[in-house]
Design brief:
By secondary structure, the protein is α/β, with parallel strands linked by helices. Helices cover 28% and strands 18% of the residues. The strands form four sheets. Strands 4, 5, 9, 13, 14, 15, 16, 17 and 18 form a nine-stranded mixed beta sheet that branches. It is globular. Bound molecules: zinc ion.
């Protein structure tokens, strides 16, 4: 286990921490006396004992993605709640306080970057195995598809340093008089900034992934979107430092010029196992749920979706079933699309954006005729389709109907060990693309395999 893996404290430091905690506890007592109603300001991470445990007795929480001391009760506040000091300094980049209103808007005519990743690995000790070969370590889904909390924070710093500014994908295209989506040739954007779409696939917290290193679900904590995870030993971790949503929210608070008109990221969800950690999917035989259970989950997720939308997040369809589209029959595609329409759209609202699972889409057999499975999706109103590709690409594709197809560069384990060079320049040019992203430097050793060993193992696995 890598609990508190970033704590490098010796005994001296421990003594210092104890002294500091004593001072803090003393201060809290004073504050509590001044006003019993005043609550100590919320920190970024909260550990809660389940009611079955003795109030006030706190089990050390597994490490979150950053240096967190979770074994130091500060305040029980009459509740079985123990708050711990604010987790990490999220960014070494000095926050600029440039209010977006002070940025001069000019006509932007360049291309719009689009990158994506998945839910973050918040608890690496649960995601990354130690007792297997190097090749097996890098073949692990959480290694290939995911990044950790510290890696995500470093990526954000780098993107900010490179002048990127988040934009809502819906802002960069429009539907023309013929119902065809067109990338805007020019749009208003702050001078000197580069528009960036950041999307996040599979924000579902699938049942099968519970206890494997990701959070369990999104929740509201004092009206803000935070996270909830219950570990096997009963420990519950709630906070704002385990998933991309609260981390990016905080980053934008500190760097308002990282977000154009409040835009955050694009949340891509499937439907077969509910959304955002809530089992909102239709009840089926043998799944052990009742319709009342389902309705409770639906009611529980609604305010979270609303809070996300209110704070600049927006949604895209990532299909209902997360299958490989190239292998779908037309009937299967229709079943998939209609279930998403019936079960998920009522929760997230309408979207024209569709993100192909696995980046898999069906090619036209003759370069002209739209494949039947694609026609099904088009009939549900999707106009902007996103796939996966390390090189920048976005085009109208009349061979797929009246749509735009865009590739998104993956920011994940594969990029860390395999695509380092592709990210350095815009294809076919010398224009730096993400000059501040340094995968070797950002690599998190919590992946349990050294960077060079991971690169070698990945090459061996791919036979290159
Ligand atoms: Zn996916």
């Amino acid at each position: 286990m890598a609990a508190n893996r970033n704590m490098k404290s010796g005994n001296g430091l421990k003594v210092m921490i104890v002294v500091m905690l004593a001072i803090i506890v003393g201060l809290i007592v004073i504050i509590a006396k001044v006003s019993s109603d005043n609550k100590v300001e919320r920190n970024n991470n909260t550990v809660i004992n389940e009611p079955s445990q003795e109030p006030g007795v706190v089990t050390a929480a597994p490490a979150t993605g950053d240096a967190v001391s979770t074994d130091a009760p500060l305040n029980t506040d009459g509740q079985p709640v123990t708050e711990v000091p604010a987790t990490s300094a999220p960014t070494p980049v000095p926050p600029t306080a440039v209010p977006p209103s002070e940025l001069k808007l000019v006509d932007y005519t360049g291309h719009v970057e689009h990158i994506f990743t998945h839910s973050l690995v918040a608890f690496p000790e649960l995601a990354y195995p130690t007792d297997c070969s190097d090749v097996d370590k890098v073949k692990n889904t959480y290694f290939i598809d995911c990044i950790t909390v510290p890696e995500f924070k470093k990526i954000l710093d780098a993107l900010y340093k490179d002048g990127y500014m988040l934009v809502n994908l819906n802002y960069v295209f429009e539907i023309d008089g013929n119902g065809v989506p067109q990338l805007k040739k020019s749009f208003k954007f702050p001078e000197g900034k580069k528009p960036l779409v950041f999307s996040f696939d599979d924000t579902n917290y699938y049942s099968a992934k519970m206890g494997r290193g990701m959070i369990d679900k999104l929740i509201l904590i004092d009206g803000k979107v935070g996270t909830y995870t219950k570990h096997k030993d009963g420990t519950v971790v709630q906070g704002f430092d385990e998933e991309y949503i609260p981390i990016l929210d905080r980053f934008v608070e500190e760097h308002p010029d990282f977000s154009f008109e409040g835009a955050k990221g694009m949340i891509c969800v499937t439907g077969f196992d509910g959304i955002l950690g809530y089992r909102t999917q239709r009840v089926s035989d043998g799944d052990g749920r009742t319709e009342a259970d389902r309705q409770r989950e639906i009611e529980a997720v609604k305010p979270i979706v609303q809070a996300l939308k209110d704070t600049g997040w927006y949604f895209a369809s990532h299909s209902y079933k997360h299958g490989v589209m190239e292998r779908y029959s037309e009937a299967n595609m229709e079943d998939c699309a209609s279930k998403f329409y019936d079960e998920v759209i009522p929760l997230i609202g309408k979207t024209q954006i569709y993100v192909y699972p696995y980046g898999s889409w069906k090619r036209s057999s003759d370069g002209k005729t739209c494949p039947a499975v694609q026609r099904v999706l088009n009939s549900y109103g999707y106009k902007y389709f996103c796939s996966v590709g390390a090189n920048w690409y976005a085009k109208n594709r009349s061979d797929l109907g009246s749509i735009i197809l865009q590739d998104r560069a993956n920011i994940d384990g594969t990029a860390f060990v395999w695509f380092q060079d592709i990210f350095s320049v815009v294809e076919g040019t010398n224009t730096p693309r993400f000059p501040s992203i340094n995968f070797r430097e950002f690599y998190d050793d919590a992946r349990n395999i050294a960077y060079d060993d991971a690169v070698a193992a990945y090459k061996e696995w791919k036979g290159k």
